[in-house]
Amino acid sequence: MSTLDEILGWGLVPRTVWREEGPYGPGSCQLWVETDPDAEAVTVQPEEQVPEGWYAVAQGEGLDGEIVCLAHADTPALRRMALLDVLANNADRKGGHVLVTPEGAVAAIDHGLTFHVDDKLRTVLWGWAGSPLREDELLDLRQLADRLPVLEEALRFNLTELEVLAMIQRLNDLLRDGCFPSPSGAWPALPWPAM
Predict the structure, then answer these.
(1) Is residue 45 part of a domain?
(2) Domain assignment present for 98
(3) What range does the domain containing 109 cover?
(4) How many structural domains is the chain composed of?
(5) Is residue 38 part of a domain?
(6) What is the DSSP string of the chain?
(7) Is the pTM higher than 0.85?
(8) What is the mean pLDDT of residues 151-168?
(9) pLDDT in tens, 64-82
């Protein structure tokens, strides 16, 4: 995921490295990200407390029986994160996987369920579903398509050929359709727990 983000130049995914020897065996590690404890990009609140301009993604019942909303901010960085998740077929974009730094930037963490060949996109960032992609987003995706040999070489280090081909198909679908996808209905659209 960090490789894809690096090639796009979006700066959303903290540096991620593979380590053969860790406390629980081989695995990946991400650079620690300091967060602003008072800032959030995704929230679950009573509907009347959702900040103005945010997207309400889903409603549910809170612990005390009140109606609450899962909502997220409407920022260019979160839009890019949602696009990155589409490309990687992220099956686990929870609110807690979207960090806000003291400078107000967002960081995308925890990408253990990505790049599956089957459509498994599961995210809290559905606010733009069906919305047209902006010209700058399309330009970034076209530039990514132009760099496919570099991307394929980089991804084949950790992914199978079928996983790489599925990612390329998702890129082509985004360019063809020119809009964010909507939930397919074939897979739960929201991760559990959402936060």
Answers:
(1) no
(2) yes
(3) 2-33+74-177
(4) 1
(5) no
(6) -HHHHHHHT---SPPEEEESS-BTBSEEEE------TT--SEEEEEGGGSPTTPEEEEEEE-TTS-EEEEEE---HHHHHHHHHHHHHT-S-B-GGGEEE-TTS-EEE---SS---SS----BS--TTTTPBPPHHHHHHHHHHHHTHHHHHHHHTTTS-HHHHHHHHHHHHHHHHH-B-----SSS-SS-SS--
(7) yes
(8) 83
(9) 888 999 999 999 999 999 9
